[in-house]
């Protein structure tokens, strides 16, 4: 009887330890404390003196470790050629084959002439693949709409970091007169009206609009990096998860604070600092985490707002009154219907 109990206990322990190992749960225990040991995801140097050197063309004391170096197939730099300033630019991360989604955006929230007194621009970021037919269709699209930015890297989910780096690189070098940039995925609903309202007074949106007299001052918010922010978020260590991260890939217990990559807005200055910060940050396959790493290094604090929805907010006409962006609009026809209804209601 005693032997049976010992055998059962031993088998239980072995089974438990095997389960811990196979699922990766043990890695939560072994991870290094983020608060104690994390400094930067890359060699740590004081960034702002390096930014000053890079901007002035002086000799660089420390070379960047992660520059975007892929050649552009389509650059369309004329998008930012304007005498005066551009208030808002939509930088849309789009999958190469999503022709219908891009058209849906052009016909809804990406429409550049939505407001006659506000300069708005829309561009689409894409990579490449081996399908020559798709590439020919894209070339025709780029020629017709002049809003495609394409570089020679493989267009895939885990290359979204490269796509984000391309967006930072392109906008930094070509769009000095743009005040704000909304980086957004091609399966999002966006309200341009609410985006502009938010930019007037991010900290008090939408409360300031509910007052009888609107007192918000439309001043430039120099250090804005805003969206739906995750703080104290932990890497997923479950081996069978799509988002599994081993200790070898990232040894710390938490991520730096980051804005979900589906929709986030940057001021021009924050874009510049984030761009330079990213060039001194090791590439990481999750683009939102990568930007969180670069933002922390650059000293940019992400600003959270609940009206950026990284999930699909259940739609109803009144419920979308203050929504800035919502994920989950895969159907371009539905997107245009929702946008049209919200525009008629004065919310888009």
From TrEMBL:
Signal sequence region: none
Pfam families named among the record's database cross-references: Galactosyl_T
Domain of life, per lineage: Eukaryota
Any GO CC annotation of this UniProt entry: Golgi membrane
EC number per UniProt: 2.4.1.-
A Gene Ontology BP annotation from the UniProt entry: protein O-linked glycosylation
Its membrane topology: Single-pass type II membrane protein
Subcellular location: Golgi apparatus membrane
GO molecular function term, any single one: UDP-glycosyltransferase activity
Swiss-Prot/TrEMBL keywords: Glycosyltransferase, Golgi apparatus, Membrane, Signal-anchor, Transferase, Transmembrane, Transmembrane helix
Family label: Belongs to the glycosyltransferase 31 family.
Name of protein: Hexosyltransferase
Source organism of this protein record: Cherax quadricarinatus
């Amino acid at each position: 009887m005693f032997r049976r109990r010992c055998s059962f206990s031993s088998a239980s322990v072995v089974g438990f330890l095997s389960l811990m190992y196979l699922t990766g749960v043990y890695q939560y225990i072994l991870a290094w404390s983020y608060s104690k040991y994390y400094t930067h995801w890359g060699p740590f140097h004081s960034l702002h003196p390096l930014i000053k050197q890079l901007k002035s063309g002086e000799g660089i004391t420390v070379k960047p470790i992660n520059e975007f170096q892929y050649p552009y197939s389509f650059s369309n730099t004329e998008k930012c050629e304007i005498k005066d300033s551009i208030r808002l630019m939509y930088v849309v991360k789009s999958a190469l084959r999503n022709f219908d989604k891009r058209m849906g955006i052009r016909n809804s929230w990406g429409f550049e002439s939505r407001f006659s007194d506000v300069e708005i621009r829309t561009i689409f970021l894409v990579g490449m693949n081996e399908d020559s037919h798709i590439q020919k269709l894209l070339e025709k699209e780029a020629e017709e709409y002049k809003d495609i930015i394409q570089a020679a890297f493989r267009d895939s989910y885990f290359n979204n970091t490269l796509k984000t780096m391309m967006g930072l690189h392109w906008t930094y070098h070509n769009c000095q007169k743009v005040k704000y940039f909304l980086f957004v995925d091609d399966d999002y609903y966006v309200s341009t009206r609410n985006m502009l309202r938010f930019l007037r007074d991010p900290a008090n949106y939408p409360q300031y609009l509910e007052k009888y007299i609107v007192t918000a001052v439309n001043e430039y918010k120099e250090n804005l990096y805003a969206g739906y922010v995750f703080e104290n978020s932990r890497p997923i260590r479950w081996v069978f998860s799509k988002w599994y991260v081993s200790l070898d890939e990232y040894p710390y217990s938490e991520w730096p604070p980051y804005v979900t990559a589906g929709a986030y807005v940057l001021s021009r200055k924050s874009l510049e600092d984030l761009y330079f910060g990213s060039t001194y940050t090791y590439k990481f396959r999750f683009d939102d985490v990568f930007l969180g790493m670069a933002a922390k290094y650059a000293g940019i604090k992400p600003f959270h707002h609940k009206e950026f929805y990284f999930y699909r907010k259940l739609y109803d006409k009144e419920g979308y009154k203050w929504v800035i962006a919502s994920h989950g609009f895969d159907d371009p026809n539905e997107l245009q219907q929702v946008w049209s209804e919200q525009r008629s209601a004065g919310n888009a």
